[in-house]
Amino acid sequence: MEEEYFMLCxxxxxxxxxRSALHRDELNQMLEIQExxxxxxxxxxxxxxxxxxxxxxxxxxxxxxxxxxxxxxxxSGS
Length: 78
Known about the structure:
Elements: H1 13-39, E1 44-46, E2 53-55, H2 58-69
Antiparallel strand pairs: 1-2
């Protein structure tokens, strides 16, 4: 039985098209998950600092951590 193998390379136009489509699909999936998390007011979460369980959306969750534990995320530019 003879098998054929194909080697892909980012320099090949077909490979670039496939990789771009896969990256785009993956990004869209992540964005959909983040959107659901932002809108879901019934997410049960455990606080990272005190183990308190609360039900809130992601924004409220961040606000609770900031208010109760003085927790802030600082983004640095590169």
